[in-house]
Design goal:
Elements lengths: L3 H18 E4 L3 E7 L2 E6 L2 E4 L5 E7 L3 E11 L5 E12 L2 H6 L4 H18 L3 H6 L1 H16 L4 E12 L2 H85 L3 H16 L12 H14 L4 H34 L1
Antiparallel strand pairs: 1-4, 2-3, 2-5, 6-7, 7-8
Helix pairs in contact: 3-5, 7-8, 8-9
Length: 335
């Protein structure tokens, strides 16, 4: 029983020794080994062993982390006071520097961000501050990254969460924005009315042009039809006259036949409703010839043939004289 306590004490010492000697480093951590307060080496993730009571391990998180910069009032170049709120994202690149080169890194980075945020925003006017978030973010990230490089930290990005101008400036900006929107609405409405009127005018113009073109084409079609009709009628009359005269020439009519046809024509003229009838100058001569023809048909055929020949000659001479007398009258009537 007296030997049990030493064994139990030894097991207790072994358990404590094993607890102190065995260390587990997670994948997102790095381990710094110190022996009697002096840096020895850096351990990676996994199961690691150290000498208890001689060596100690400092674990450093190398994941990307964020620091919230509390809202602070900043004066712009045109003396406007704005409240700026930002966040900083960073990651540890060298565990040795972040442990041994700076104490309380997060506090140091926070104060550095606040100071440089005042400097960056102070160089800008209010309007530029409100519209240049990307510019402020990039400039602040560059300044912080240069300053924290010797601390073994890389600033990945800086984001401005909000920029709040004073209440009076906000009201003025709201009124200005409302006025601008009202102006744009009025301009758009005027442009719409203008385009509508232009389109209506163009439509009326096109309608009038098409209507005029339609009337012109209709008139042209009617004129073409009338011309075609007159040409066709004239050609038909010309062909009829040619056919008649050709038939007359082919039939070789005698003078007595011509005289009879002449009398038939005079009969048609006399059938009208006119109370006065004008006869040609040579009518009396032709009528005498017709009377002579009627007497001739009562005589002997040989004598009748001889008289008909004489009558034809006289009718021919009478007709030629009548034509000669018509020429001066026709010429005098033209003047």
């Amino acid at each position: 029983m007296d030997g049990f306590y030493p064994i139990l004490f030894a097991l207790f010492l072994v358990f404590i020794f094993a607890t102190k000697a065995v260390k587990i480093i997670r994948p997102f951590e790095k381990g710094l080994i110190e022996r009697f307060g002096k840096y020895q080496k850096t351990l990676g993730p996994g199961l690691q062993f150290i000498i208890p009571f001689v060596e100690t391990i400092i674990k450093v998180d190398v994941r990307e982390q964020v620091i919230d910069v509390p809202p602070q009032e900043v004066i712009t170049e045109d003396n406007a006071v704005v409240t700026v709120d930002a966040v900083i994202y960073f990651e540890v690149t060298d565990p040795f520097k972040v442990v041994y080169n700076v104490a309380m890194f997060e506090l140091a980075a926070l104060k550095l961000a606040q100071t440089n945020l005042r400097n960056v925003v102070g160089d800008l006017e209010l309007d530029e501050t409100l519209t240049s978030r990307e510019k402020i973010n990039a400039e602040l990230r560059r300044i912080l990254d240069d300053a924290t490089d010797r601390w073994g930290v890389r600033v990945t990005r800086v984001e401005l969460q909000k920029i709040d101008p004073p209440r009076d400036i906000t009201d003025a900006m709201s009124k200005q924005m409302k006025a601008e929107r009202t102006k744009r609405a009025a301009i758009l409405e005027a442009e719409g009315i203008k385009q509508s009127e232009i389109l209506k005018a163009e439509g009326s113009k096109q309608g009038a042009i098409l209507e005029a073109e339609g009337r012109a084409q209709a008139i042209q079609k009617v004129a073409d039809a009338t011309r075609y009709k007159e040409i066709a009628v004239a050609e038909g009359e010309a062909e009829a006259i040619i056919s008649v005269y050709s038939a007359i020439h082919r039939g070789m009519p005698s003078e007595d036949l011509i005289a009879i046809k002449y009398l038939e024509t005079l009969q048609k003229v006399a059938d009208g409703n006119a109370t006065k009838i004008f006869l040609p100058m040579e009518t009396s001569g032709i009528l005498g010839s017709i009377a002579a023809v009627a007497e001739i048909f009562k005589e002997n055929p040989d004598v009748r043939r001889k008289k008909l020949e004489d009558l034809a000659k006289s009718f021919e001479s009478t007709t030629s004289e009548g034509k000669g007398s018509e020429e001066p009258e026709s010429r005098s009537s033209t003047y």
